[in-house]
């Protein structure tokens, strides 16, 4: 348990180090808090004994340890002081799901100057809203599938013989009757395409179009949107450039990254993992800030930023929280249209 004086000294050391990136000395702190240098040095020594501060060498000032960052962030989250700062604003109205996810990722990276990652809702949470069967040419046909989340999938089919326009119109009506409202992740989706009462030609035609729906089932995994990798590569806040290699490797292994972000779905509010608190090796020299978004009864995905330990935690927490709240409102409206 820290004293009020220690709390103030630790907070100022962290804030000064986050801003300047150089060890913070007692003279600078004494000028700010108007205590004597000996008093400041004593408090710094106490904080170092508790593992919250360290110094690179004997005559240097102090820098935060991972535990120091952890305490600083916990105080931020408890006080919710980040809520009083300017808010992140997303223009998501009238956008498709994919476009909304991409805009959220880009805006979040720009505002925080960090790597931003957003996971989209798994496709199995969607249902089929509408199917179009369009005869583009005599032997060329396009099937368009629109989902309840606004996603659009299209596929072209080429036939060896001209397609009867009446058969194409019938297929559109049949597919909408059989599949609208049916979940994409449902195991029975493919079976819904068939009906014993169909004629041989009708059944054969539906079989020919079936791959577009099979592809939807196979794609029933989370999509990952990433923005800001180039910002991290140019960032001078990394203590060791080799730390970037591990992070870039993890970005290539997206399955591992998805597992890390999925863990945030089990937490309430904003999750902050600092350094070795991250179980994934590629993140142990980074800080991760994440929050879940979704429907009142179900979380659908995560919003997150990743960067060096010396990041603006207040801005990162506020921006992630705002983005998650606005995405929740967006997907709630989309799902209400089912």
Quick tags:
three-stranded antiparallel sheet; 13 helices; Beta-Lactamase; Enolase-like, domain 1; alpha+beta; 338 residues; Arc Repressor Mutant, subunit A
The SSE string, one letter per element, is: HHHEEHHEEEEHHHHEHHHEEEH
Radius of gyration over all CA atoms, rounded: 27 Å
**What is the tally of helical segments?**
13
**What's the CATH architecture name of the largest domain?**
2-Layer Sandwich
Poorly predicted parts = none
Helical content class: 40-55%
Task: Give me the count of strands.
Answer: 10
Calculate the mean pLDDT score and round it.
Answer: 83
Strand order of the largest sheet: 7-3-10-9-8
Question: Could you please say which CATH topology of the largest domain applies here?
Answer: Beta-Lactamase
Q: CATH homologous superfamily name of the largest domain?
A: GAF domain
What portion of the residues fall into strands of 2 or more residues? 15-25%
Shape: elongated
